[in-house]
């Protein structure tokens, strides 16, 4: 299997509704209110409403997202407790 190339990370947003991201290493979770991505620059949480991953090409490190964006928050990692809590919230909806 071909190894992923280390690429730069970019985030382009158009009209607060369409986004194109590069430097994506993994999609950790997503639902209509939050998308959690692992990027080459750390974790990225995209929050909003009616969020949708419209295109995903992990071998190229690219993701396109759509929806009403409220925030983009970077952090260095995801706490396992936070990930488990988010999963439980979705499960119990």
Quick summary of this structure?
With 93 residues, the protein is mainly β.
List the helices and strands and how they pair.
Elements: E1 10-14, E2 18-22, E3 24-30, E4 34-39, E5 42-57, E6 62-75, H1 80-91
Antiparallel strand pairs: 1-2, 2-6, 3-4, 4-5, 5-6
Write up what this structure looks like.
Helices cover 13% and strands 57% of the residues. The chain has 93 residues and is mainly beta. The relative contact order is 0.22. The N and C termini lie far apart (38 Å). It has a 6-stranded antiparallel sheet with strand order 1-2-6-5-4-3, with no helix packed on it. It has a single domain, classed as Immunoglobulin-like. It has one helix at 80-91; strands at residues 10-14, 18-22, 24-30, 34-39, 42-57, 62-75. It is globular and about 35 Å long. It has 1 helix and 6 strands; from the N terminus they run ββββββα.
Number of individual domains = 1
Percent helix, as a range, is: 10-25%
Major β-sheet profile: 6 strands, antiparallel
Overall pLDDT level: 84
Rg, please? 13 Å
- The amount of beta strand, in percent, is over 45%
CA distance, first residue to last residue: 38 Å
CATH domain fold name: Immunoglobulin-like
Largest beta sheet: what is the strand line-up?
1-2-6-5-4-3
Structural class, by secondary structure, is mainly beta
CATH class: Mainly Beta
């Amino acid at each position: 299997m071909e190894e992923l190339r280390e690429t730069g990370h970019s985030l382009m947003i158009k009209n607060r509704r369409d986004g194109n991201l590069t430097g994506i290493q993994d999609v950790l979770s997503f639902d209509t209110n939050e998308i959690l991505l692992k990027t080459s620059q750390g974790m990225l949480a995209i929050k909003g409403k009616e969020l949708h991953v419209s295109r995903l090409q992990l071998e190229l490190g690219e993701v396109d997202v759509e929806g009403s964006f409220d925030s983009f928050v970077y952090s260095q990692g995801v706490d396992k407790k936070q990930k488990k809590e988010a999963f439980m919230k979705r499960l119990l909806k």
